[in-house]
Amino acid sequence: MKKILSIALAVLLLAVSLCAVSCDKPTDSGLAYGKECLAVASQLDALNGLVKGDADIAVIDSVMAGYYMKSVDTFKDYQVLENVVLAEEKYGIAAKKGNDALMGKVNEALIALADTDYKTVADTYGLTTELLVKADTVNPYASAADASWDNVAAAKKVVIGYTLFAPIAYNEGDGAAATLKGFDIDLAKAVFAYLNNKYSTEVAVEFIIIEWNQKEAMLENGSIDLVWNGMTITPEREAEMCISVPYLANKQVAVIKKADAEKYAAADAAAFAKKATDAVIIVEKGSAGEALVAPVE
Q1: Closest by Cα among 254, 97, 249 to 183
Q2: C-beta of residue 228 within 8 angstroms of C-beta of residue 162
Q3: 117-124 and 183-199 are packed helices; what angle lies between their axes, rounded to 10 degrees?
Q4: The CATH number of domain 88-250 is 3.30.360.10
Q5: Is the omega angle on the peptide bond into residue 167 within 30 degrees of 0, that is, cis?
Q6: For 102, which of 132, 148, 158, 171 could close a Cys bridge (C-beta 3.0–4.6 Å)?
Q7: What is the pLDDT of residues 144-166, one digit of tens each?
């Protein structure tokens, strides 16, 4: 028995030795970047976690990163890592699977507003270069005849789920005096104003804050009608939800301390992965960033 245990121990030690030589930490941990992934409730929480020292790198949307790095004093000592784009993406609006008629109306309005309100709202938030909808964009749900739009029209209300994610959705002011603003907030209002005018409906837009990783369940159980909050279009989401035409371009980027710029400087994402081997990465739970850093096998 002792001989068997000795052999087993020797084999184990050899395996550990070989792994120490040939295995890097991203492969060992299952992460695409870094040694550890912390998932928090929102992208803003990811940035705040970076500031608190919980992590070395935050992986978030470029749309958000550009706004916070330029506009918020809290992040004046942080920057987007130059030259490193971890993924290029497109945003879509989501409804429950099968609610094609509702999405058809949303698409119709986006396309109709492509040269007017869509551009005006984008200009307000500095997002004109990210616009994707054009006047000749094809609406894949134009002929949908299910009851989803009629139900919203009859209820005279559409409930939209969002998270705080400037400049997509954020509160201006404090407490009871705060006003909900943002690109998606203003665009949703413009879309339903257009639809109300065209179809003589009286659909009011109600926004409710959600936990991002609960969005699919909330669509399914009817707690919300739409997720309209800078949601990355993926094949998995397209299989689970009814998604609009792509309406905004985005990238996944790495936010770091300015003091760490030389430490993580890289020519591309592959070079960055090697430099970030020992880094703790922080992301939003259920986000495209989390899927990128810690892909589900």
Answers
A1: 249
A2: yes
A3: 160
A4: no
A5: yes
A6: 148
A7: 999 999 999 999 999 999 999 89
